[in-house]
Amino acid sequence: MDYLGQTGLDALKGADILKVAPEMYSSSVEYAATPLAQKFRGISMVLQANLGTRFFYTQSASWDTHASQMPGHKGLWQDAARSVSDFFADLREHDMSDNVVLIMFSEFGRRVVDNGSGTDHGAAGVAFAIGDTVKGGHYSEYPSMKKEDLQEGDLAPNYDFRGFYSTLLEDFMHLDPTEIVGGSFEKLSFINK
């Protein structure tokens, strides 16, 4: 019971601390009025308040494009690109961009073959690492799209995402990833050390 009481007090204290973030925030960057851009603006506010938070999570609108994928994707990617660009411009304005790596991923991949006007859920997916400390490029093997190499119509996953997380934890955050990801996994070399 004491634990629950302390947890409640800590939550209230955290809420009070977060109230100062908007008061301390200033930026010349004009974020788009989209929900995603405003979420990135909120993260920048908390980062600039220097509250010690090391992980942030947000999500974008639905990319679940079973139909009308072509016209929908253009707007989704434009929003994502502008939001990320504004976020890093804001961080650079405050000399904070070297302290942030943004990862973008989907919880599911897409099928190789369309269903008429969109694509259904698939097995393999992609993840992006974005930031001033990231060495740009393509890492890992691109899965084969040959029909005989597909798994029930899906790209065959060929890299364990826990290696991606391990790279971020060890090479960027300087933490031991073993307990966090549940073992040792092949890392990629996308972080400038």
Automatic annotation (TrEMBL):
Pfam families given in the database record: DUF1501
InterPro entries documented for this protein: DUF1501
Record-linked PANTHER family: BLL7424 PROTEIN, DUF1501 DOMAIN-CONTAINING PROTEIN
Name under which the protein is recorded: DUF1501 domain-containing protein
Organism: marine metagenome
